Give the backbone structure.
Amino acid sequence: MKKLIVFFVLMFIPLIVSAAQDTNKVQYRKITNNSFIPGEVLEYEINYGFVTAGYASVSVNPQFTEINGRKCYLVEVTAKSAPGFEFIYKFRQTYKCYLDAEGIFTWLVDQDKLEGNRAEKIKMEFQHLPENSKVTRTEDRDGNIKTKDIPIDMYSLDDIGTYFYARTLDFTNKQVGETSIFPYVTKDEKRDLGIKFLGREDTDVPAGEFKCIVVQPMLREAALASKVDDIFVWLTDDEYKMPVKIQMKIIIGSIKVELKSYSGLAGPLKTKID
């Protein structure tokens, strides 16, 4: 019971903690973002081979949120297994990521997931300072609570933040094979993550056919990937760079996440092929 009380105190204490980091004294970067806006909703289908394994939704809350005195996007990701797939593998996940609206970097992550019979809650609080950036990671797995401070590079991103930051990159004059590098943190370590430009191609998904750019997240490791270059992402070839498809090879077979529907985009979509 004591551990449970400690966990909920950590989860729900107000996040305006100026004593821990005085954001008013830091000149944070500014990133031009014409790619996504509050109110965007993307719905996906998760396929394992020819089987529909589940569904996912990625939405940007219609209202901005304030974290540490900074205006933030609240990105909410939900995923769940399809009823017909649960006898193979059952999963539920809610993931909330708070991204700085001006600098497109992560301030806070709240994650609640169930995989099989294992329940886990994760909270990651980011501190971005020129000389002392860190993330405090609190993990509750079946009542076993662990908290750890992890040194990171300033402007480090979480898993979801990387996709939204990648949407702000300009691929117009990128050469095939060119890679953009930025700081990234996952689990209990910091990394440099590369987004490699692979070229352009049309792709057909349940939401329609789209002109896309293809990029490859260059991870040092991935929990399900059989090797580091087995993840590919298709983004619309326009200023919105809407994620249309993600494909990942795993040890047995492959997983595809394909766009079913979209709404609330930053402007008219011209890359859909009629």
